[in-house]
Amino acid sequence: MLRRPTSITTLRAPFITRFAPSPNGDLHLGHALSAITGFELAARENGRFLLRIEDIDIQRTREEHVAHIVEDLRWLGLTWEEPVLRQSTRFDAYRKAFQSLLDRGLLYPCFATRSEVDAAVAIDPIGTDPDGAPLYPGLCKHLTPAEIERRRANGEPFCLRLDMDRALTVAHETSGGAPLTFREWNAEPGTPPAIVAADPARWGDAIIVRKDTPASYHLAVVIDDAMQGITHVVRGRDLYAATGLHRLLQVLLSLPEPVYHHHRLLLDAEGRKLSKTLRHTSLRAMRAAGATPAAIRTTLRNARI
Ligand code: GLU
Question: What is the pLDDT of residue 90?
């Protein structure tokens, strides 16, 4: 008897995605869209769905928010693999990664306060990053080693910034001159992802390690997507421009390149992006007001694009 060929399932490329909320507030409809999109794609693609709690910001993290996230997602009918990864347990991995960037001269310490940066750009504006924040005007870029040592010894807090020009040069060399791109998938079955030019320079000398924690969102997200073997990053279009910077870090740190699916954003009636400050769209508030998971899904389907 002929043996059956290997099943389609085993031939299929692996699909591992994650929902990665920051526990600094309650989840809103926009988060529901992200979580449900990732969950449903993982189910459709015979893949895995993970939950990651992005709690590097120890000051703003509240255990109550973590508990609410789990409760809200369960209420929506989602399930995920245990254990849930918490980024607050990953500081050693982030330290190792930034040390390797530091050793190659790709990061430099910056002692400037936000008001010093604001004052400098008020005099000499150099533009804004994709989030609308002023580009860093280079205040601490050329400090001498002695000056850095003096300020560190003084206990002045500092963050670590990416030397963008140098990082682009090193990435260019590392990839043999190939242009930096990312793969954007429209999530249609069988459709290959589009190749998009990545433009990390738009972020200027971005903060890679914050003053108060040994990482930034950008560093932690690429390290953990790689460690968790994420093949498909499903998240909102608000993070589309950040993907350019994430690709640069992936090249610099020799991390694998996932496929990205940036889904549409939900806007409120005034056309504003939903946020944690718009309390009426929090899933808890909607549940308390009698919404059902089915009603949430209908709202998501009908919401403005
Ligand atoms: N933690 C991020 C947020 O809550 C999302 C990170 C991501 O999906 O890459 O906005």
Answer: 98
Number of domains in the chain: 2
Phi, psi dihedrals of residue 222, rounded to the nearest 5°: -75, -35
**Phi, psi torsion values for 59, nearest 5 degrees:** -65, -40
- Closest C-alpha to 300, from 281, 284, 279, 285: 281
The two three-digit tokens of residue 279, written as one number: 């309390």
CA 288, CA 272: separation in Å to the nearest integer? 24
pTM of the model: 0.93
Check if the beta carbon of residue 26 is closer than 8 Å to that of residue 282: yes
Both 137 and 49 in one domain: the answer is no
The number of the ligand 1 atom at minimal distance from the alpha carbon of 238 is 10
User: Do residue 275 and residue 199 come from a single domain?
Assistant: no
What range does the domain containing 133 cover?
91-219
Q: Which atom of ligand 1 is nearest to the CA of 221?
A: 9
Structural domain contains residue 291: yes
| Average pLDDT, integer, range 12-18 | 91
Cβ atoms 141, 112 nearer than 8 A = no
Between residues 44 and 272, which one has the greater pLDDT? Answer: 44
Q: Per residue in 291-303, is it b (16+ CB within 10 Å) or e — as a string?
A: bebeebbebeeeb
Strands 207-209 and 159-162: antiparallel
Q: Are residues 69 and 98 in the same domain?
A: no
Pocket of ligand 1 (CB under 6 A): 20-22, 54, 221, 235, 239
Are both 204 and 270 inside the same structural domain? no
